[in-house]
Amino acid sequence: GDRIFEHTMEKINAELFVMTYGSLVTHLLSDAGENVEDVNSQLDHIGYKIGVRLIDEYLAKSSTPCRSFRDTAEAIAKIGFKMFLGVYANVCNFSEDGNSYSLVLDENPLTPFVELPTKYKKDLWYSNVLCGVLKGALEMVSFKIDCYFVKDVLRGDDCTEIRVVLKE
Amino acid sequence: GDRIFEHTMEKINAELFVMTYGSLVTHLLSDAGENVEDVNSQLDHIGYKIGVRLIDEYLAKSSTPCRSFRDTAEAIAKIGFKMFLGVYANVCNFSEDGNSYSLVLDENPLTPFVELPTKYKKDLWYSNVLCGVLKGALEMVSFKIDCYFVKDVLRGDDCTEIRVVLKE
After folding, report:
1. Do B11 and A15 make contact, defined as CB atoms within 8 angstroms?
2. B1 burial class (0-12, 13-18, 19+ CB within 10 angstroms)?
3. What ipTM score was computed for the predicted complex, to two decimals?
4. What domains can be seen in chain B, in order of their start residue?
């Protein structure tokens, strides 16, 4: 117990992480040929498996309960992002029925120094692993969601925005 | 200048890094078929590109000069490993001519929770990216080296040992 908790507090240099993630995306792209949509799916799938495991660390360290779907927004933006990526996200655009919201990143820790080649700017969601992480993590606390990027500054958008939608 | 330095001080959750690196290795293995040696080479190559960039961060933050090859041992073990991976390494087995040494890791931050499938235990050097990082980084400060794992606890060895050999 204690030993594991101690371990999970450890931190790694951000640049090493950024380059390792970049290598992963590069290799997926080199395999995919023109099928960039397939790379988005693979990143989502990789993220899902990570999220399923990271939720344990989140629950061990955070005392904030997520009783409603609405609670998950602040929990992800203010605790989860900070705990794992070192930055906060902003919550906005809650739908009227409360079943969807957006997470907006002022700074995306996966992308410093990253520039997308023009041929990928239209189709690649470079940070799509994050959507998978959120899906995997929320599923473990009984929220089935859809999650996808709607904007990315890497593509030339004015901000980076992830949409989170509760299913059923 | 300041902005970049500030950024490079940032840290990422270690478990997220471990799983991202694991996804990279898994993906390379799935591509390589039976050719595990090729995966070792690819990890080394990925590490080289990372090392070539990380050395800038090291030089910006460390005031320890590496005038001789001998100096690089302590610089890597006591500063580099700590700065990027959060652990120290031990230097041992300096050759009589001073042209090679070993770095021994008590704890390998790339491998918590990792278990190698039996079929990979003989040939895969799971953490081979580290050898590439050392080659790339040292080359930037004018030391051409060979670098390779000689032991890995993941394979059942009693410790994890990286050999560093100066090439003239």
Report:
1. no
2. exposed
3. 0.90
4. 2-166 (3.30.1380.20)
